[in-house]
Amino acid sequence: MALRKPRDTFKLDRLHFDALGTNNHRLGTCARRENEEEKKYRCVYNFHRAIEPACKQSEKAVFSTSWVLQYTEPDCEANLPESLHEVVVDTRKISAPHSLFVALKGPKFDGHDFVDRALEAGAVCLVNKTWEPERKGPFIRVEDTLDALQSLAAAWRARFGIPVIGITGSNGKTIVKEMLSSILARRFTVWRSPGSFNSQVGVALSVLGLREGHQVAIIEAGISENGEMDRLEAMIRPTHGVLTSIGTAHAAGLKTKENTAIEKLKLFKRLSGALVAPETPEVQAHNTSPRTLWFSPEIASELGAKPSCTYQPISARARLKLQDGSEFEVPINAAGAHNAMNALVAAMMASELGLTKDEIIGGLSAFGYAPMRLEIHTTSNWVTLINDAYSSDPVSARSALSTLSFYGANARKIAILGDMLDLGALSEDAHRELGRDIPGFGVDLLLTLGPLAKSIGSSAVQAGMPAPNVRSFDSIERLSEFLDGELESGDVVLFKGSQALELDRVASGLLESVAPTRLYVDLEAIRQNVQAIKTRIQGTRLMAVVKSFAYGNDATRVSQTLVREGIDALAVAYADEAIPLRNRGLNLPILVTNTLGGEADKIVKYDLMALVGSVPVLDDLERHASYRGKAVEVHVEVDTGMGRLGVKSKDVLEFAKEILKRPSLRLVGLMTHFASADMAQDDAYTTKQLALFDEAIVALRSAGIEPEWVHAANTAAAWRVPAARYNLVRVGLGLYGYHPSADVEEWAKDTSPALKFATQVIHVKDVEPGESISYGRTYIAESKRRIATIAAGYNDGFSRFMSNGGEVLIRGKRAQVVGNVCMDVSMVDVTEISGVEVGDEVVIFGTQDSAEISVDEIAHRGSTINYEVLCKISPRVRRIFIE
C-alpha cells in the first residue's frame, strides 16, 4: 500500500486579527498591564491555542496501570500509581517518575539486584515471582518478566494501524534499516529500532517506543536459535517485510542456510503487504508471502530484467533497477559492493510504499552509516580512535571498515581486527572472505589479534595488500607494545573484535591519553529528539541550527546525523561555519544567518543561502555572484520586534524590489525571529510579532512575490506556537533535548538530553580543621574533611560561579565544590561519599547511576541560560560521539 504525502505547501490561513480582537478576550489574560493593541494580539494568540488538541502530542506515552496489569497477569502487586510513563530495563535509563523497570535475568546478570536502585528513582518494578520485597515500594510480580515484557509489546503494537516493516536477514539488516529510514524520513515521521535492538528484549523495547505521531515503523529482528522468531513476530506483526540475505551469521545455532531461511521467514507469515527478498533457492522453497518482490542477490555487471544493481567502486555509486522497471544512479556512502545491494533492497521497499525516485535518491544521498555501539575519540596527539570492540561478525566488521574508510579520508588508516567468534563450521571461510575485502576499504596497516583473525591478514595479502603492512599478534600485550611505538599524529585507528577477546582493553589503554574531561554526545538521543520534533510540527519542514560549533558539540558530526534523519536544511551563524560542512559532502541548503559583506565571496563559492537585511550586503553578494557566474539564494529577515537585524515590516516590499533588481540574486525566503516565544507571560508580544510578519507576507504576495521558505518559529515556537510554523521551523537547542524555558519543556516531554559532561578525580586528601582550599582562601574547613581534586576548571567550561556550593556527581551522589574554581582543576568535598579514589568518574551535568544534574540547574546557579553553559565548554574538552 502506498503512503500519502502530507501537504507541504504554505497557506496564509489564519483568521483576520481585527475580527477576533473583540470576541475572544475571555480566553485569557496577561500577568502584566497591557495596552489595548497588545490585548487584541493576546486574544488572537489565545484563540489559536484554544483550537489546539487538549492532549499535548509531545508528551511521553502513558501506559495505564490497569492496562499493564491486564497483559502481564501478575500474582501480586502493591502501591501502584494510576499510570506509567515509560518502560526500561536499565536503571540508568530511568528519566521520569513512575517508569516501569523490568527486572530481567540473564546468564551474567540479574536485574533484581537493581530493584532497590529503581525504587529510589521512583520507578515501579516488574519482578519475577521468586523476588521478595525488602523495602516498601510499588511492584508488579509475575511468573516471568521477559514473557510479561513481550506481552506488553504485543498489546501495544496492536494499537497502531500504520505500516510496520519487519526486517531480518543474516547480514545487512541494520544498514538496510538505516538506509530505508533515511529515505522514508524525506516524507514521513519514522520510528525505527534504536541501535541494534533486535533481540528478544530489544524488539520489545523497540515496539514499546511507538508513539501516536509516527506514520511508519521499521523494526529489526535478529535470531540465533530455532524458535526465536515466533516470539519476535508476535510482537512486531509486520505489514511489510524485508529479508536481506541468507548466510552464515550465527551458523552455530541455525546450522544450515536452508534452516536459516525457514526460521527467518517466520517473521513474514502474516504480511498484508509486500515482502522484499533475495531470489535464492532456500528462500523460494519456503516463502509463503502472498506478494514477494524478488531481487538478484549478486552484484550484476549490467542490469537485467529483474530488480538488480551494478556498482562502481571508484566512484562509490550504484545503478539500481526497481520492481517498476525504473533505473537510476545513487551514491553509496558506505564502502563495499554489498552496500550497493543494501541500497537496492531499501529502495525497493521505499518504492513499494509510494516514495518517488527523487526521494529515494535524496534519502540515500543523506545516508551515512556508522556501526552501533561505536565511539569516536580524538587523543591529544590527534590520533582518532574508532572503538567498536564489543562484538564482531562478517557484516558488522565490514560496516566498521566502511566507517574507518569514511572518517579516515586521506589519513593513514589502521584496522585492528580480532577473531570473529560464534560462526561455527563456517568460521574459517568467513575470516578469509573478510580478508579478501580489506584492500577495497583503503586500509594502510592491518593488525590482527587471535588465531582465527590471522587468516584475515593472509587473505588480505593474497588480495593485493603489501605484506609488510600486515601484522598478526597472539596477545593483547604485544599488540599494545607495537601500537605504543607505531601510532602517529593524524592516524585513524579502528578496533573491531568479539568482546571475549577484550580488545577494548587496548583501546582503553590508548584512551588514557585522551584528556580526562569529556563531553559525551549521544547521537541516538539526537535522532529520537528530531523525530519527536517532527511529530510535533506535523509535516512542516525542519531547519537544524548548528551554529556555534553546533552549540559546542562539533557541527560536522552532528550535522551528518541530522541529515540522515531527513532534515530539510541547516543554519549557521557565519559563512566559515558552513565550509567544513560542505567539505564533508553535506549538500543540502545551508542558511548563513549573519551575512557579512566581507564574506560574500564565501557565500557564493560554497553555494550557501544568505539572510539579508541591508542594501550594501545585497551589492556585495551581487558583485561576487556575477563575477563567478552563479546565482545566490537569499532570505529576507523581517524585524518584527527582536530589534537586532532585518528590515521593518512596512519596508519589506521595497527591499524585495531591491533584490529583484539584481540579476544574480534570488529571493527564496522570508523569516523573522521571536524575542520571547519561550515565555508564556509574554504571549501577547509573540502574537504581535506574528501579525507584523503576516503583514510582510501579504505585502509580498500583493506584488506577486511568493518566497519558497517562510519561517518564524525557533525551538520555543516550534513547540509552543503552532501558528508560527508556516512551512519551515528552525530548531537548535531542542535537537539536544534541552529547552529555553519551563514553558517550552512542558510541550517537549518526549525528548531527552543528549549530552553528558564528565571528568575524573585526580587526587584525594584529608584536610584538617582550619586549613584552606584554593585561591583567595574562600573556604576554610571547620572540621576534618576529605577533599577530591577533579580535572575540570573554568578553562574547560566549569565556571567560577560553581565555586563554594556548586555540585557534581561522584559514585551516584552529590559532592559540593569547596573553594574557588581554578583554571584547570576544582576541589569538591567527598567526606560523605565512601570509597572515592583517583580515576572515579565525575559528572558535571548528566546522569550517573540514578542521580542527575541538569544543565538548567547549573545555568540557574550562574544566573544565565543553558545555551551559554553549553557554548562555553572548551575546545580542550574531548567530544566523544556515541552511536
From TrEMBL:
It is found in: Cytoplasm. Its cofactor is pyridoxal 5'-phosphate. Keywords: ATP-binding, Cell cycle, Cell division, Cell shape, Cell wall biogenesis/degradation, Cytoplasm, Isomerase, Ligase, Nucleotide-binding, Peptidoglycan synthesis, Pyridoxal phosphate. It holds the Pfam family Ala_racemase_N. The gene is alr. Residues 754-882 form the Alanine racemase C-terminal domain. It comes from the Bacteria. Catalyzes the interconversion of L-alanine and D-alanine. May also act on other amino acids. Substrate binds at R644, M823. It comes from Microvenator marinus. This is Multifunctional fusion protein.
